[in-house]
Amino acid sequence: MSLLWSLRPALTSLFQASQPASAWTAPILSRTMATLNQMHRQGKPKPPPKTVGATFGRPQLKAVVLKTMIRKPKKPNSANRKCARVRLSNGKEAVAFIPGEGHNLQEHNVVLVEGGRTQDLPGVKLKVVRGKYDCAHVVKKKQ
Q1: Alpha helices, DSSP H, located in the chain
Q2: Cβ pair 139, 102 in contact under 8 A
Q3: DSSP labels for 78-113?
Q4: Where is pLDDT greater, at 65 or 34?
Q5: DSSP letter at 47?
Q6: How far is Cα 85 from Cα 65, in angstroms, rounded to an integer?
Q7: Helix, strand, coil proportions of the chain in percent (round to 5)?
Q8: CA-to-CA distance for 126 and 124, rounded, in angstroms?
Q9: Residue 139, H or E segment
Q10: Which candidate, 136, 126, 130, 121, places its Cα nearest to that of 87?
Q11: Contact (CB, 8 A) for 113 and 89
Q12: How many Å apart are CA 57 and CA 115, to the nearest integer?
């Protein structure tokens, strides 16, 4: 222990030598506030660009059904959710949820899709509009 205390002056001089000589240079990690001149040169900060939703800024999109499928929901829920892989009118492909009980959709049917995330289906951000184009209304149950 006494050996360390005897080496203390030599160690402190080594540590001081490794630090920058100028008092004005700051360590790389610390950032200081911008000066008025720097803020004037940079100008106003630009707002972040708005992200477009699932329908690319439109309320609805026309789409063609490529394939109908059944998806399983996330963990606490258990069901078979009816979905369809669709090609949107802008050329992109997406998965759309088919709401209601029963549907008549097949390959090559034309449907209208709107934005609307299905919470328990990961990656499904579109919904098929029932009663438009080739997708029939939900059939009322007989009592």
Answers
A1: 2-18, 36-42
A2: yes
A3: ---EEEEEEEETTS-EEEEE--SS-----TT-EEEE
A4: 65
A5: P
A6: 6
A7: 15, 25, 60
A8: 6
A9: none
A10: 126
A11: no
A12: 10
Q: Within 13 A of 59's CA, how many CA atoms are on the CB side?
A: 1
Task: Name the pLDDT band for 66 (thresholds 50, 70, 90).
Answer: very high
* pLDDT, greater one: 45 or 9: 45
pLDDT at 24: 56
pLDDT tens for each residue of 1-36: 565 566 666 656 655 555 555 555 555 666 788 899
Average pLDDT along the chain: 85
Q: Which amino acid is at 115?
A: G
Q: Which two tokens stand for residue 113?
A: 């899709």
CB atoms within 10 A of CB 35: 9
- 3-state SS, residue 42: helix
Helix (H, G, I), strand (E, B) or coil at 134: coil
Using alpha carbons, select from 15, 3, 95 the residue that is nearest to residue 54. 95
Q: What is the pLDDT of residue 29?
A: 60
Extract the tokens encoding 38.
């720097």
